[in-house]
Design a protein that fits this description.
The complex is a heterodimer of chains A (352) and B (400).
Chain A lengths: L9 H8 L3 H23 L1 H32 L6 H19 L8 H31 L8 H22 L14 E5 L2 E4 H23 L1 H11 L1 H6 L4 H26 L6 H16 L4 H20 L10 H15 L14
Antiparallel strand pairs in A: 1-2
Helix pairs in contact in A: 2-3, 3-7, 3-10, 3-11, 3-12, 4-5, 4-6, 4-10, 4-11, 5-10, 7-8, 7-10, 8-10, 11-12, 11-13
Chain B lengths: L7 H34 L11 H23 L8 H14 L8 E4 L10 E4 L1 H23 L4 H21 L42 H24 L2 H11 L1 H6 L4 H27 L9 H14 L4 H30 L9 H15 L8 H9 L7 H4 L2
Classes of the chains: A mainly alpha (352), B mainly alpha (400).
Amino acid sequence: MAARTEPDPGPAGLAARLPSPSSALGLLLVALVLAWLAVNFVKSPSNWTEVFLIGLTNGAVYGLVALGYTLVYGILQLINFAHGDLFALSGLVAFTILNSVLDIGSNPSTLVLIGGIVATLLITMTFFAGANALIELVAYRRLRNAPRLAPLITAVGVSFIIQNIGLAVYGVSFRSASDLVPHTNVFSIAGVSYQWNKLTVILVTVPILLLLTWFVTSTRQGKSMRATAQDREAAAMMGINVNRTISITFAVAGSLAAVAGLLFLLQFNMRYDTGFQLGLIAFTAAVLGGIGNLPGAVLGALVIGFIQAFNEGLSWHTPGSDWTQSIVFGILILILVFRPEGLLGERTAEGQ
Amino acid sequence: MSAPRRGPSNERLERFARQWGLVLAVVALGFLYPTYVGWLKGLPLVGDYFPTVGSMVIMTVFTMMAVGLNIVVGYAGLLDLGYVAFYAAGAYTAAWLASQQFEQVTFHFGSVGVAPTLSGIHLSIWLVLLIAGLFTTIVGILIGLPTLRLRGDYLAIVTLGFGEIIPQFVRNGDNVGGFDLTHGTFGISPIDSPGFGSGLSSLGLPDNYRQSFEAERLFFYTALALLLVTVICSVRLRDSRLGRAWIAIREDETAAAAMGIPLMRTKTWAYALGAFFGGVAGAFYASFKSGAFPADFYFNISVFLLCMVILGGMGSVWGVVIGGMLLGYLNAEGLATIGSKLSSSTGIDFEPSKYQFGIYGLIIVVMMLFRPTGLVSERRRKLELEEGVHDEPLYASQRE
């Protein structure tokens, strides 16, 4: 949470930081990437723009998952390893609700479609909010005062349990609802087209983010969340119910994962183990933006979304999708080693 | 004390017997296992649950990796979620140095069971094991140097990142600048067999493992010997100056630094030595399976090994050996046996082996919640978990 703000270093601070070789190298790397993007843009502007839009859409989904990581990390300093798997399970549950419970067939009318998506969202958000709060209660609460690695190890175990629940219920086959929202163009300008199914992601994500911002900054509960994140003991002394606040944080994270799960289902195939890799990508996004920092998580997710889309979609000197994972993890490692406070610079205890 | 007339050598002998007597008994039992396994498997009711010698090889190799991981996780308290990277590095070293992968060259040195004209690098497997260990140590140091200044959970994620990057590199490495380094998703196979060559067969040493009638028994004996060496090294390391430094860092980094322990160097040593055993085990396993395939090196294996360490008891060598053998057994054939027994006796169609990683996850969670010290508690670790440790990071001293 963006409660602890560093004083602005100002021009003098910037100048003092510039000469260090690692940051010079980092700037050089960023410059190279930008040059590569520019060349690709000149070669095929329409393709570039389309890939950009894909990146924006994927980044929005990553952002929702990354927010879950960053919320929990902010309050407990715990990398909630199981979060990605919760996301995957929520997507699969959303598939069941859409297809079996609400029974929305192909080519539904617009009203039915919107109603169905909203209803599914409400159901999965509620359910996974409860599920994530329950996971915290069962698996992490006992370990609150244990060495810090203990809950992380537990989280790895929980991640496998959730994955296997998905495996037991849904088997190994992929599920998708990518035909639910029509693929007709929203606009098509100069060879650049954008489809409704992609726009749906943005249309759902933006209100959710506004809601979250309002919740964290303006409500009493949001304030106690930030206070607990800043100093748990002091918050308890001020009369904040720390346990309840942590439960609510997990619930919020779980419902965000549920939103992301549905949106991912509307775009791609998913199955029980989709969450592992996507969770790591989202975690990278959270670290990139500065873990514990809510706007940072969204920014990092967009950056990662763009990087992935450009890597897989552009043609000139691109490593290709075989290397996406390595690139994302390479970024994660570089960020953690050279700038652990992330892009937006919240210094956590781990960093510096 | 109780017998004052006894000489010092006698006392040492007694201490030695106390410390290692049980171990020697277990090793002897293990050594004889291939001899009486037939009898055990003939027992009524429980006979089917005894693992075959082939499974015992796999169990022993994975236990060896777990003992290696225990140096990193248990002794030094550095959570490594990417240990599979070392396994992969070791396996591919064996694949490079004892197969036909590099067909551009023909180089033979001490290899058994391959025609002298066969292309590729063919070194003796015993040499390859050593080289694999050293190569993996270097990989461990290279991964460790930039990342070990991070603490705790960040380090865990970085190691996880490396654990994912290395297999992907292996998968995509069939065209590194036009050169086929790893043979892509197909993996490298076959890999030469271990053996001592015909020159030493007069000493009773086997010529070539794979061509022997008792191949599995020979592989098992070798795996057992490797595990024993790993365990002995591990115990001796724990009691050494370095081992005490690891434990000091695990308990309180600030205090350890104040006492003059060089943090980065000590941690890197933990990483390097842990990697060494992972590499040797990986190379040996590749030779046993006669192949290195990228599909073997996924994240689940890292968690599987971690589960062995947690079940057995972080920091407790004997605990890890027990945990490793137990989970190794479940992984190699135990779950499948239990599943088929279950479905034949009750008619329920349930395959526990399909959900094995869920079961390991459950074991991890249950152990961490109710018995975080593991089956065999290590005394110091228990105190740390009960009384808490000072694990706030120490900024200045982390940069040496």
